[in-house]
Amino acid sequence: MKKFTIVDAHHHLWDLQAVHYPWLMERGVVRFFGDPAPIQKDYRVSEFKSDIGELPVTQSVHIQVGAAADHSLRETRWLQSAADQSGGLPNAIVAFCDLSAEDAQAQLDAQGVYANLRGIRQIVGRSEAEDAVTGSGALLDDPNWRRNLASLSQRGLSFDLQLIPPQLPRAIEVLGDCPDLAVALCHCGSPWDRSPEGLAFWKKQIAALAELPTVHCKLSGFGMFDHDWNVTRVRDIALHVIDCFGPDRCMFGSNFPVDKLYRDYQTVFANYFELVRDFTESEQRTMLGGTAQRFYRI
């Protein structure tokens, strides 16, 4: 496997003194991805670069961590400062905006002053248990949310879509009404249910979603759904995604430091290299860097 230039298309950073993150402050609570205790500490560009080590990761995309309008603006401000000081990383910022709020457009105006802003993420689904508490699944049927979602393309912004498979049919309908919106599906659509029936449903919905030409897919976050994941365990999922979307609409992300709970950075990308080993050199370059550069304009 040649050492291609890598763009990490999905990672997180945080400074607990600069921004307040409730879930990082909350102790003793197991999340949908596991026990967050080992990562409930600062994770800045310096820690990220230390984890990258000698891998040729030259650019990256930061995905929002905060989930409140005031915290999110502080997060974006801090991230832009970190990028300016680091000489690049993170090169693209995907910020939070509550698209269901009456002041959503004002939130977008405030976010839009930062040079590295490229998109918005508001999580639709994490897991059935957590979604039952947050009610996030109702966003797909919220008229105001849908109007503001559609408006993102007019601002030149993309949308990072995180949900769970049962929400995919409705999401496909909603995105069908936003034909100009560039969308990045996070974590392969969160294939939690690995039963034959669960995987068959997920595969069918992923194929249907891929019919929308502006939707891309991020192969990332495998550790959240399978703590013992390796190439063998996720190959069928990864190859189905690539087959449906094609290399030009697929990209890889570390999901660090969340996935650091289960694998070090080098092991994550060693698995990714193995997953794409049988593709052409051009296709490998595209999935490991080119798609993310084009999608996030970096």
**Rg (C-alpha, Å):** 18 Å
N to C succession of SSEs: EHHEHEHEHHEHEHEHHEHH
Helical fraction = 40-55%
- Largest sheet geometry: 8 strands, parallel
Summarize the structure.
With about 300 residues, the chain is an alpha/beta fold. It is built from twelve helices and eight strands. Helix 10 crosses helix 11.
Would you mind describing this structure in some detail?
α10 packs across α11. The protein is α/β, with parallel strands linked by helices. It has one domain (6-295): Alpha-Beta Barrel (TIM Barrel). The model has no long low-confidence stretch (mean pLDDT 95). The longest helix has 18 residues, at 69-86. The chain has 12 helices and 8 strands. α3 (69-86) links the parallel β2 and β3. It starts with 5 loop residues before the first strand and ends with a helix. An 8-stranded parallel β-sheet has the order 1-2-3-4-5-6-7-8.
Which short descriptors sum up this protein?
TIM Barrel; alpha/beta; 12% strand; 298 residues; single chain; eight-stranded parallel β-sheet; 8 strands; 41% helix
Write the layout of secondary structure elements.
Layout (H helix, E strand, L loop, with lengths): L5 E6 L10 H4 L19 H8 L4 E7 L5 H18 L5 E4 L8 H8 L5 E5 L6 H7 L8 H9 L6 E4 L6 H9 L6 E3 L10 H14 L5 E5 L2 H4 L5 H15 L4 E3 L12 H11 L5 H15 L3
Parallel strand pairs: 1-2, 2-3, 3-4, 4-5, 5-6, 6-7, 7-8
Helix pairs in contact: 10-11
